[in-house]
Amino acid sequence: MSDFLNNRFIKHTRKIHQCDLCLRKIPKGFSAHNIKGVYDGEFFNIYHCNTCNELGKEFYEYVTDGWDGCFDSQALQDSMDDYECSTPLQLLNTLRKQNEDEHKHQYEPLVNSVMKGDYY
Length: 120
Ligand SMILES: [Zn+2]
Prior knowledge:
Distance between the termini: 51 Å
CATH class: Alpha Beta
Structural class: alpha+beta
Largest sheet: 3 strands, antiparallel
Bound molecules: zinc ion
Number of helices: 4
């Protein structure tokens, strides 16, 4: 369990950082998310690139270790392999697309039958 968590958006980084999730370098002057916290009594101070931050918010289960719920670069890598994506951005877009399709699947039959008047 995380005892304390602080996610700060940095508009322009002053140094090069490494994204803790996709392990890519975040160039100086780019935006990033700085996440500080205490986990199991251990202080951590990590950076996430914008894509990984979005993935973490929207698709938490794809980028975290199912065991302890921690962000895990291996989990991200596995998800990218599963979806045959070579970048985190591709994965984000693929997962968003998949969500949309599922959403359509769930609601389209209902919408169609309402339009056809089956519901009256
Ligand atoms: Zn990243």
